[in-house]
Amino acid sequence: MYFSASRYWLLDYFGHVLDHDVLRDCLVPVVPPPGRYPGLFFFADDVTLDRFPVALRKVVSLPRPFPALQARKLPSGLVTLEAQDGSGRYLRSVENEGIDFRVVPPQDWEHFFVLSEPMMHAYAILGQPEIGTIRAMSGETLEALRFVRGHGGQIGPYAFSLSRNTPALEALASLAPGTEESLTLVTREDESIVLSVARA
């Protein structure tokens, strides 16, 4: 089942992606360099379901497995991840403290955004100025995409929800070298903006 499915990654509230520390064999939050896949992912057939299983996999295989998780989709488009060991623990990411499992009512720290492979490809293009140049309609060149607090993204002065803008961002994953496309985003202030993205 899993090997015919797609790969996904997890983004926490603070704009960090869950990764695997191979020296300590534990989960860690990182700011991922655009164009590099984190060392921790999961396979899934359909992440739009209300509930779906999540088995975290390490790029560098080490013997200690992570608990099996059950993802529950929230109206916001985010997910919670509950350990399937009967403990009632949720995966959480605490700023400056790391990743752990606790029996807590899921709040922001226990909410995650699921990053698809097309989204990671779009991040590689939009997050590296030498690969993708982003311009406002005025012609001004904008700062590259970065992940920010609140499961969001920011390009230049424009902050936006990743879940609300997923289709538009994922569509850029197939942007061919030497071509240019428009990118329409809805900002945190509910303003619709149109940007131009040119790939080197």
Give a brief outline of the structure.
The chain is mostly beta strands and 200 residues long.
Notes on the protein architecture:
The protein has about 200 residues and is mostly beta strands. It has two domains: about 1-115, Trefoil (Acidic Fibroblast Growth Factor, subunit A); about 115-200, no CATH class. Helices cover about 10% and strands about 40% of the residues. The chain contains two helices and 17 strands. The chain has a four-stranded antiparallel sheet. A three-stranded antiparallel sheet has the order 5-7-8, with no helix packed on it. The protein has a three-stranded antiparallel sheet with strand order 12-17-16. Strand 7 (about 70-75) and strand 8 (about 80-85) form a beta hairpin. The radius of gyration is 17 Å and the shape is globular. The mean pLDDT is about 95.
Q: How many strands?
A: 17
- Rg measurement, Å: 17 Å
Strand order of the largest sheet: 6-4-1-11
Reading off the top of the CATH hierarchy, the class of the largest domain is best stated as Mainly Beta
Give the domain tally.
2
Helical percent range?
under 10%
Shape: globular
Per CATH, the architecture of the largest domain is Trefoil
Please report the number of helical segments.
2
- What structural class do the secondary elements suggest? mainly beta
* Gap from first CA to last CA: 37 Å
Q: CATH topology of the largest domain, which one?
A: Trefoil (Acidic Fibroblast Growth Factor, subunit A)
Q: What oligomeric assembly is this protein in?
A: single chain
State which percent range the strand residues make up: 35-45%
Sequence stretches where pLDDT stays below 50 over 5 or more residues: none
Give the SSE order as H and E letters: EEEEEEEEEEEHEEEEHEE
